[in-house]
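Standup notes
- DV: blocked on the single-chain target, sequence here:
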Amino acid sequence: MSNGPYGQIACRCGAVTLLVCGSPLGRGQDAGDEPVTFWPLEAIQVGGGADELDISPDGRGGNAWGCRRCDECLLNAHDEAGVAVLAGDLEETDDLSMALTLSQRLCLEELGYRVVAGE
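- DV (later): unblocked, structure below
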């Protein structure tokens, strides 16, 4: 993770903080048509609150990373695809080049995500 932090994610109570490093792989929508951003799984680091981090099956073949205190889900990790899915869209989507491999795209689509090409 030599590119340095790109951003920080914290749960609403502040007990768990995650660092997102490097560059996103792409963007898309979840099954409810809400925007999501795809990141390499290795781009996620625990910044604080490791004892409060709950990693549990999400029911779709991945794991939900959330806070034990406030029960907020911070991201969904999919080991098979090697991708972390974060809710929300990037502010700088103009420079986003799709870096998802075909196998990652297919895996994410099987999980119910719709991958959106950079516009």
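- Follow-up: Residues 102-110 form the longest helix (9 residues).
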